[in-house]
Hints:
Helix 5 crosses helix 6. This protein has helices spanning about 15-25, 30-35, 50-75, 85-95, 110-115, 115-125, 180-195, 240-255, 275-280, 290-295, 295-305, 320-325, 350-360, 395-405, 405-410; strands spanning about 1-5, 45-50, 100-105, 135-140, 150-160, 200-210, 225, 230-235, 265-270, 285-290, 310-315, 335, 375-380. The two termini are about 30 Å apart. It has 15 helices and 13 strands. GO terms for molecular function: aminopeptidase activity. This is Cytosol aminopeptidase domain-containing protein.
Amino acid sequence: xxxxxxxxxxxxxxxxxxxxxxxxxxxxxxxxxxxxxxxxxxxxxxxxxxxxxxxxxxxxxxxxxxxxxxxxxxxxxxxxxxxxxxxxxxxxxxxxxxxxxxxxxxxxxxxxxxxxxxxxxxxxxxxxxxxxxxxxxxxxxxxxxxxxxxxxxxxxxxxxxxxxxxxxxxxxxxxxxxxxxxxxxxxxxxxxxxxxxxxxxxxxxxxxxxxxxxxxxxxxxxxxxxxxxxxxxxxxxxxxxxxxxxxxxxxxxxxxxxxxxxxxxxxxxxxxxxxxxxxxxxxxxxxxxxxxxxxxxxxxxxxxxxxxxxxxxxxxxxxxxxxxxxxxxxxxxxxxxxxxxxxxxxxxxxxxxxxxxxxxxxxxxxxxxxxxxxxxxxxxxxxxxxxxxxxxxxxxxxxxxxxxxxxxxxxxxxxxx
Length: 417
């Protein structure tokens, strides 16, 4: 039995308490599959509060959020074989079968090479192993009502990151099965969308799932690859694969956003080791471009994250972030990365955001351009759970609170949306 006392300084403490209890009762997918008896002894939770009219709404919101968070955990936690790219795809297909979410799946290598060449480069080493072959998955929700807002969320889904030819050393591969948590978060968020069915909002989730393998067929430093946007990218480090698999997908979403109503684009990724060094474990990072910054998006998201106990720190883009990715040779447009790991770089988690903008063409849609587009990059490397500690499902709760929920109304028992 849980008694929700509440707290005068934290208006959402009853909801956060319920979410915390549900999180503590989560059992990883593979453990459930290996032995269905390995679950918690607690089978039911009783909830008591002095304000019973709030209870129904609180339980509804808590369970909705936990369903989405658990989808993210079920994709993000399993080992590289249980959640290989084809198996992530199968999981998502089963999840959204006969739902309000439509699916489109790309697995043809020729399509990758023509339309998503940066993704294709990362997929190259794994492409000859059928069970490791990459996928790009588009999930879309269309409301019945007139659209007033559009969201495009791109998730990094590296099912295992060896570093590629720039192979990780000194035990750094441990936990790299969680390098798919950005993609997992997008799927979890879309499951909450599927439950809530928000009015007036179109939402597109785009997921690149790939294994960054080592092999003679792998991409290497010094390669020149023309991105979907048309810019020429020089490879500096094959362990900077996350930005590679998202850039072309982000470019595709940018093309859709230019025709969309009031769009906002996101990339969500366990992108850099620098992120957890910069802000510590347990915190997401948000970086806005100019149009998003004008609306104080990062500060609003930070507030919504605090409200639901899914906290964000705010970082800023600077001119040196773009300068560090400018081409160094005649004809080069963009340098993918330094050949050093992000953890030793001065602006190791900020500059990849600049690369994503430059490689996708989003840098042509800033505040001073004819068609400005709001864009925010979320680095969740420090917030997903330090392996092998329990996985968190971040930042599903914060994004849901910001875009989909009105917690005050829900906690008072009113129907959401």
